[in-house]
Amino acid sequence: VFFRGCHVDGGYFLTGEHRQYDGVNGTFGAIRVLRPLLRGPGNYDRPHGWGAWEVAARFTYLDFFDPDTPPGPGGQLIGIQLPESTIGVNWYWCDRMRLMANYSYAVPNEMNTGTSAANIFGTRLEVFW
Questions:
Q1: Chain centroid, CA 37 distance in Å
Q2: I want to staple 28 with a disulfide (CB 3.0 to 4.6 A). Which of 4, 19, 34, 43 is the partner?
Q3: Rounded CA gap, 82 and 80, in Å?
Q4: At 114, phi and psi to the nearest 5?
Q5: For the residues of 85-100, what is the DSSP string, one character each?
Q6: Is the pLDDT of residue 123 over 80?
Q7: Distance (Å, whole) CA 15 – CA 53
Q8: pLDDT tens, position by position, 37-51
C-alpha cells in the first residue's frame, strides 16, 4: 500500500517583518513584531503600532487510495483523494500572540460516493509560550 501527498505554502509580511531560518534544525523561528499593538516588558524598546500583518496561502493534496488496500467489510473500496487550497491573514499583536483568519476550499473525492465540495472559514487566537 502506498499513499501520496504534497504540501506547498507561503506567506508575505505586509509590515516588513520576516522569519529567521535555523539551518541546523531546518525550522523557521519566531516573529519579532516591529511595532507591537500590545506592549509588555520585553518590547518597550519598540514603538507602539498596529502589529504585524501577514498574508498566507497553502495548497495540500492527499491521495489515500491504493488498489492494494484491502476492501471494506461490505466489499467497498477504501480511500479518498483530497485537494485543498487555503488563503489567510495573520495579525500578530505582539511577539507571542496572533489572530488568524483562514478560508479553505476542499474537494474530497471518496471512492464510493464521488466528489463533493467544502467551504471552510476559521479563526484562531494563538498564544506562544
A1: 23
A2: 19
A3: 6
A4: 100, -160
A5: EEEEEEEEEETTEEEE
A6: yes
A7: 6
A8: 988 776 778 888 999
